[in-house]
Design a protein that fits this description.
Blueprint: H1 3-28, H2 34-51, E1 56-61, E2 66-71, H3 78-93, H4 97-103, E3 127-132, E4 135-143, H5 147-164
Antiparallel strand pairs: 1-2, 1-4, 3-4
Helix pairs in contact: 2-5
């Protein structure tokens, strides 16, 4: 064998390894897993604690079914349904709830949407779709603080998820 043949074989092996890694990553992240949901929820809880917020964190799969609902000690009872609603909304509409807010105001193109889907649509901040490789894998809803706090916590959770799914 000459040098060019060896070089081609090495390149082929490297390409195959890269394809295998990509395939493993894609197979692993076709839908939300409990392990990933728990990691995101723990991270959001830590950040919420630092902010002085007692949050409920809901994570759904790509079908908007719950994978995990994480209630911090002494969180509001109402935050459970709100967090679930936010996680449902972002999967159902494939957009953050804070973006939906302006569209759902009087005169907006989606005005009244909160009255659809049996009232499950939430039109204020705190929900983020969880995407990997351009594919929707689930939704994150956070409730317990102000709209600004919930929005910041959900954005933080989305960033954590993105780092996990790379």
């Amino acid at each position: 064998m000459d040098t060019s043949q060896i070089t081609e074989i090495v390149k082929k092996v490297i390409r195959q390894q890269e394809q295998n890694e990509t395939m493993k990553r894609t197979q692993r992240l076709q839908d939300m897993t409990l392990d990933v949901a728990m990691t995101v929820a723990r991270g959001v809880e830590e950040r919420a604690r630092d902010m002085g917020v007692k949050a409920v964190v809901a994570v759904t799969n790509r079908g908007a079914n719950p994978v995990l609902v994480h209630c911090m000690d002494d969180s509001f009872i109402a935050s459970y349904d709100v967090a679930m609603g936010k996680a449902y909304t972002v999967v159902a509409l494939k957009m953050p709830t804070i973006e939906l807010k302006s569209l759902a105001q009087p005169g907006g193109s989606l005005y009244g949407i909160q009255n659809t889907n049996s009232g499950r649509i939430v039109i204020f901040g705190g929900g983020e779709p969880l995407m990997s490789g351009g594919c929707l894998l689930g939704g994150l809803g956070v409730s317990g603080g102000t709209e600004e706090e919930d929005t910041a916590l959900a954005a933080y959770g989305r960033q954590l998820f993105e780092r996990l799914s790379v």
